[in-house]
Amino acid sequence: MAKALKVLQIVPSISLVYGGPSQMVRGLSTSLAKQGAKVTVLTTDSNGDEGQAPLAVPLNQPVATDGYETIYFRCAPFRRYKFSLPLLQWLRQHGAQYDMAHIHALFSPVTSLAATVARRQQLPYILRPLGTLDPADLAKKKQFKQLYAALLEGPNIQGATALHFTSDQEAKVSERFGAQTRDIVLPLGVVLPNFSCSEAEAKRAIRQRYHIPDGVPIVLFMSRIDPKKGLDLLLPALEALHQSGQQFQFVLCGGNPQDQGYVDAIGEQIGKSALKHCTTVTGFVTGELKGQILQAADVFVLPSYYENFGIAVAEAMAAGKPVVISDQVHIWRDIQSSESGWVVPCDRTMLTQSLADALANVAECRRRGENAYRFAKENYSWDAIAARMVETYHQLL
């Protein structure tokens, strides 16, 4: 019998407040375990960057988690950057016991130094950039990132067994800092929220909870509240839609543990606009409530300026919802080819028109939502992706 593959998943935090990357590592690790791999997740107890309490978890010891084990380390002293010296010490002592390290995030001190440790130990490692090599992301703090890349990420990329991208477009646009790399392209899977009731029951519950009248369609944004998500396009588009006489309720779900100031500014902008009386702001949601909101929505929208995959889009598709996204969400070709929604440039007028088209045609919305569900089920299944990942690990080794 073949020896079980021993894999480390290293990520700055798996708190759900950080959104897609945390969900991805959890889903991948569970499914890898189902494939027979022995998976250990190394992470910190970080649970937000602006005054939030850390995760209430045991530290420096394995915690059984859905078929795999998680080891949490204290996030200190640089809480905002999710640094942990004990994590790096553990990796230095135990890394040689593993076959592969899968490291999620670049330009994060703990993962950058984890890659450096792995490289020096000759432990094969894969880097998943999470969109940080996109030119739009690299343009932020450009000089700092150029220096950071010269000192750490450039050598780490050069020494990596492979770079893991989640779409062909992400791989195509990503910077390598002159390094010669082997790329693998594997999409992310979807861990469906808890659908504890039927869609009809969820619709009634959400409309009652947020006082949304029957017959008023729900336009849902459910993602991190961040400038890159295109809210500066979406809010004016919705204002134009409202002024045209189109009825809708905009449901804004999400937070940003790294920039509460921006979240507050968006709330103030809505409060001073024509959207004030047709917007519901829920904050960050998870679990049963998240599932009910997805079920209750009529259309999902995410006009991001850049998105290496778009896990929130995949979740909405898996819930059977048609999506309106920008062509900078890197799975836009999947949406276009499967007729699972509408794809637009980062343009307010075209975004407004696509939302108007979606809301004006209930039957077409339903058809595209059904297409979305089928496509997500066939292509964003964690079990299928994990099987391909295990095969990829063996090929790389």
From TrEMBL:
| Matches recorded under Pfam families | Glyco_trans_4_4, Glycos_transf_1
Q: Which residues form the Glycosyl transferase family domain?
A: 203-374
Matching entries from CDD domains are given as: GT4_Bme6-like
Record InterPro entries: Glyco_trans_1 (IPR001296), Glyco_trans_4-like_N (IPR028098), Glycosyltransferase_grp1 (IPR050194)
Sequence ranges assigned to domain Glycosyltransferase subfamily 4-like N-terminal in this UniProt record: 19-188
The molecule here is called Glycosyltransferase
